[in-house]
Amino acid sequence: MDFALEIENGGVDPGEVENYDEIKVQITEKLLAIKAQCPTLTVEPLIYHVDVAAMYPNIILSNRLQPVAIVDEQICAGCTFNKEANDCKRELDWEWKGELYPLSKSEFERVKLQLKHELEQSKQAEHQKSFFQESEDFAKLLKNRVKDYARMHYNHVKKT
Question: CB within 10 Å: which end of the chain, N or C, has fewer?
């Protein structure tokens, strides 16, 4: 209860709670009742603690572990492995690495509008397609058009 008040509720002092002892007795009684009803569990848990700090970068990437493994102080305080014996508090610097097209938003919107206009003109000539087929085709055509635009205007397709 102290943890719930101090950490999860943003630093509330247990002395400030009026019926702290009554609630503690109620919770204790309910837990003892559950303990009396249920025998000891022999099921192995499927929760794994992954020590990302001890892994090499290629292992992190091959297992698709992302910076969600990095926690803040509140999440770390609630971890069952938050003990002095476990050395899981090593902080790492993470950088976002990715590839993106060098177009600005306005350039992208212009390319998109141009493609829509061309497709609408060609649609009048041919029969109507289903919505899903049309959206998949449009996404592929838009990606190719953006690549071509980037190659023509920026001399490279992606920026890393």
Answer: C
Span 96-144, pLDDT tens digits:
677 778 888 999 999 999 988 888 887 765 655 555 456 778 888 898 9
- Angstrom distance (rounded) from CA 125 to CA 119: 10
Helix/strand/coil for 159 = strand
Question: Residue 88 CB: number of other CB atoms within 10 A?
Answer: 16
Q: Residue 64 region, left (φ>0) first, then alpha (ψ -120 to 50), else beta?
A: left
Task: Give me the residue label for tokens 């102080």.
Answer: 73
Helix (H, G, I), strand (E, B) or coil at 10: coil
Query: Is the distance from CB of 53 to CB of 90 less than 8 angstroms?
Result: yes
